[in-house]
Write the structure tokens for this entry.
Amino acid sequence: VSTDFDTSDKLYFEALHTDDVMNVVKKEQPLGVILQLGGQTSLNLAEKLSKRDVRILGTPFSSIDLAEDREKLNGLLGEMNIPTPVGFAVTDEAQAFAVVEKLGFPLVVRPSYVIGGRAMQVVYSNEEMWKYLKEAVSLSMEHPVIIDQYIEGKEIEVDAVSDGEDILIPGVMEHIERTGVHSGDSISVYPPHTISGEVAGLLAEYTERISKSLNIVGIVNIQYAYDGEKLFVIEVNPRASRTAPILSKVTGVPMVKLAVSTMLGNKLRDSAYGTGLYRNMNFYAVKTPVFSGAKLTDVDIALGPEMKSTGEALGLDSDLRTAIYKGFLAAGVNIPVRGGFYVALSPPEWTAATAATLKKYAAEGFRLYSSNGTSPFLAENGIDAAVLGFDETLRLIGDEINGIINVPEIANVKGGNSFDIRRKAVERGLPLLTCMDTAEAFLDAVRMKKENIPLRYRTLEEYLSL
């Protein structure tokens, strides 16, 4: 699949959308238009509608432009002393490798003006950077590439409603997968289960300061990365994200209703939900991505900065482990309790934490199989695994191999051995775990199924009353 991004296509389709919207505006003569509830495509119309004197309800165009422009946003965050990953826009290879020299690896690279993390990648070496610049994107003044410092750690999402003066944060969602996996493809947990009260307080403080500085009126979504010491702002979206309806459901806070109310001039302090960080519910909600890999042939679903999921499911329970189990079940993931797992990992994953996770799989009774490249790492860590070649691996998938743990160096490369193995696992309906954090969480589902504990189901109203 070509990942070249043509700005002219983007402008052409936006022009079509603008004309469609203007036709409706002329016909209906509305008080104004709401852009922040229509995703990124809707938000992209802000400049053109503003120039045509169409009233934008809620967050003004000037604030939308500031939040969407990475350079302007980084300047604002710098003035506020709020950390954000260091990044640069480059237009040729010389500039790109000058940034490499300055920041070091790993780095996140992406074309400018992308939706859904298209053509984004985490690179770990000069070779990977060279390959990305040559094969994945077109470098030019019209098509700059953004190179950002990669913050390895915990990703956290905050959705808030602001009236320009006060904010309300219904809840915070903590990702299971580390930074570098698209938020739409991550398993997310509400309320956060590992971050401290101090970090939660800092999240609320940063969100309020950013919302006020940007004059946000309505919904805002802010994505953070926490490396264990510092909290970084990764992205500020002056619109509703996919997590807004989930948080509305599991907290009982009607975010869209409140957002529209603030756009019409009402204040949050006068609502029934108050301001600041809302109280946590007494249960866990686990958002689990759903993939359509079996229906979309020749598509790779290895996790990374590009979004691959086509939907999401929700697992609810007062016990986190059970909520995770329910999430996997709801997403239609096959959960084996015996058999074998094939393991193939890129060198950055050869860590003590990875070894500890794989030892847990062996302790659960799974026989481990390994690629030639990964076998030395397993042997060094005392993990017994049968080494398989490519043809033998394909033959055993669905027979002796009941699941795949594969973190590739580069995804989306058709015709490679790793791609073919992942595709066959998807076609056979086997669990395909392409991030070690997912593999660790999956163990909870395996253990729950092995224990055969009856699951208890409640209505959403019952959970909210706990």
